[in-house]
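User: Please fill in residues for this 294-position structure.
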């Protein structure tokens, strides 16, 4: 062009426009969200033949949604992204070690594999071998949310809201909602400030407030019981979610204190470490939980 050579070079290598996934990776590492979420599933697959570990698939799906890729079809392209593979914890980020030749260069799972993961929530078959436990997932969300509420907050405001989630196509449970003017689901949410405590998927053929009282009871119990027992004569938190939340809260306090080298004397225990330690022992013994404290 004008005596100058014009050269088009398409050998740029592997490129990605989703650098934000590295931020999401650090958040997940700090809070171990996907690692704990994986504990809410039972993986019945033969692990000798598994290429996509459950925590990696969960990170792939969750990070994909956070990055704006809500449709499973998007993962036919996302599965090629080495940056997303690294963020998901995949060691072979270029997919060079895949077992089957057609899968070489595809480090992450495709839409069909992720679909089987999601369908395992309600279906068990020879193809759907990852079983989701809804009560454990619900407990994890509530536990993480309650733990994030500032301990010294004098007033806690719980904001319940139902909103529309539009349905495209003939999905299960579709129902036309007159207020929103479309076929949709009607999920129920509860937030404390910007902290999510409750997310319940529901069909829209119901009143928007249905189930709020039951959800409120569980949330209030979890918030209240995380502080129990406060003394030797205090009652224990209820078994299940409240007890787990209380244990996590007390063990978290103890772990931070000991990592900072705090010491307790006969007259000085400003952070209530002795009370927290006795609370952990009381809950474990009172409810017969089997735990190795070493």
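Assistant: Residues filled in for all 294 positions:
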């Amino acid at each position: 062009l004008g005596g100058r050579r014009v050269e088009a070079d398409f050998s740029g290598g592997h490129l990605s426009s989703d650098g934000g996934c590295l931020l999401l990776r650090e958040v997940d590492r700090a809070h171990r969200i996907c690692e704990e979420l994986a504990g809410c599933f039972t993986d019945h697959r033969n692990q000798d033949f598994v290429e996509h570990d459950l925590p990696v698939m969960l990170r792939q799906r969750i990070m994909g949604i956070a990055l704006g890729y809500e449709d499973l079809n998007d993962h036919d392209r996302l599965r090629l992204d080495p940056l997303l593979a690294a963020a998901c914890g995949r060691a072979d980020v270029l997919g060079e070690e895949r077992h089957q030749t057609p899968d070489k260069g595809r480090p992450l799972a495709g839409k069909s594999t992720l679909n089987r993961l999601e369908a395992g929530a309600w279906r068990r078959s020879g193809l759907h071998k990852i079983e989701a436990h809804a009560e454990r997932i619900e407990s994890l969300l509530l536990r993480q949310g309650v733990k994030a509420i500032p301990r010294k907050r004098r007033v806690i405001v719980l904001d319940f809201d139902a909103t529309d989630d539009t349905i495209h196509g003939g999905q299960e449970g579709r129902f036309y909602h007159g207020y929103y003017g479309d076929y949709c689901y009607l999920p129920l949410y509860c937030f404390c400030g910007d902290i999510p405590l409750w997310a319940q998927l529901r069909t829209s053929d119901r009143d928007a407030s249905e189930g709020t009282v039951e959800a409120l009871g569980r949330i209030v119990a979890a918030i209240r019981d995380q502080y129990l027992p406060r003394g030797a004569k205090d009652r224990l938190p209820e078994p299940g979610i409240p007890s787990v939340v209380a244990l996590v809260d007390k063990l978290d306090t103890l772990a931070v204190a000991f990592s900072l080298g705090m010491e307790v004397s006969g007259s000085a225990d400003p952070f209530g470490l002795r009370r927290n330690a006795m609370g952990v022992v009381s809950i474990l013994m009172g409810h017969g939980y089997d735990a190795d404290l070493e």
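For context: The chain has a mean pLDDT of 87.
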